[in-house]
Amino acid sequence: MSEVREVRIAASRHLSALKKMEHAKTIENCRFCGSPQKTMYLNLGEMPLVNNLSSSPDEEVERYPLRVFLCHDCGMSFIDCVVDPEYLFRTYCYRSGMSGTFVRHCRELARQIDAKGRFVIEIASNDGTFLHQMAKSRRLGIEPAQNLAELSQAEGITVIPEFFTAETAEKVLKEYGWADYIVAMNVFAHVHDVTGFISNAKKLLKKDGVLIIEAPWVRDTVNNNDSGQIYHEHLSYISIRGMKKFLRRMDMSIYQIKYFPDMHGGSLRFYLKQGEQQKIDVGLDDGIICYDTYQQRIDRVRDDLSAYLKDEKIVGVGAAAKGCILCNYCHLENNVLAIYDNTPEKWGKYQPGTKIPILPQEEISSVRERILILPHNFKNEIRRNIRKLNPQARFIVAVPTIEEL
């Protein structure tokens, strides 16, 4: 019987390896400049796909290598394992509108660009949170996740349910014409073909049109001990130096950069126009980024959290991607009894890798255990919301260091 079991286990592992080969590939060179000169500065081992929630605790979870490299030539960071976007994004459980902080962020951007009567395209429009603020503009979303596209369409927003490819760009140009603004919030880091992405955006922009790209800043991710930004959907980690070099080659000029320290652990917003690189003083630079100690500090977060919790039973709040990496890398499956979340699509599912159940946020009202806030970047908003449900709640965050709130 034991031999039969071993054969079955070996067969299962072989099938899992074959599935990985179907869904992922490994790259050797930097996707921004093509250089093979790179140094690995973080290795999280094999991690699950953070938003592929399990329907059963017994469901087999695929794991893929998760390693971050620094390009010696252009200064961009990237992971070398590229999972097929069709596999990652056709159905997507993250809804941007579930965060009040992000809704306000979108409202402020809409107010700033003041595009009344103008044509605005959003790439990766998610559930329409930003485009909802653009009701006085001609607006169009491009969103590959069918479930999210349908949410926007139900609100009267026109959405093309496809990836932003050359074919999609041609279709938009033919049917809708050139855009005054193209907005790409939290999608550029997800893109493997970054050159094609910028080229396709340029095709759709009017001569004086504006491309707005927003992405987490690698400086804050690395210096703030944040492993939660590192997962397979995030193929690249953006530096100002690297973006300047890349965009110069793409004949795009940065005319403004804004920094948002509380957005996704620290994000940059680049305002771009076509043409030669302009000499501007954006008031921002990468400064010192401590790549060489990042692995050591991430391991210390894991070890300190393990020593701090010991055998204590706690719960989590916020079934976010970054929380999945934290729970898996820190081996919290024996500490965290459940994770409470306000996204209905996640209820009744299980966090990939740890098999921790995800429950409706309202049910946290009866919890007496301490609560680990998994999306630490939204800790203030989450704490306020949970205190309304559970006034006696006691909170912990683990990043950048352990803190009792």
Strand content: 15-25%
What is the H-and-E element order?
A: HEEEEEHHEEHEHEHEHEHEEHEHEEEHEE
How far apart are the termini?
A: 52 Å
CATH homology superfamily of the largest domain? Vaccinia Virus protein VP39
Topology, number of strands: 19
CATH architecture of the largest domain: 3-Layer(aba) Sandwich
The strands making up the biggest β-sheet line up spatially as 8-7-6-9-10-13-12
Largest sheet, strands/sense/barrel: 7 strands, mixed
pLDDT < 50 runs, ≥5 residues: 4-15
In the CATH hierarchy, the third-tier topology of the largest domain is known as: Rossmann fold
> How does the helix and strand content classify structurally?
alpha/beta
* Whole-number mean pLDDT: 93
What is the count of distinct domains? Answer: 2
Helix content: 25-40%
Write down the CATH class of the largest domain. Alpha Beta
Helix count equals 11
As a whole number of angstroms, the C-alpha radius of gyration is 21 Å
| CA-based shape | globular
GO molecular function: methyltransferase activity
Organism: Desulfobacca acetoxidans (strain ATCC 700848 / DSM 11109 / ASRB2)
Domain C-methyltransferase: 263-400
Pfam family, one: Methyltransf_13
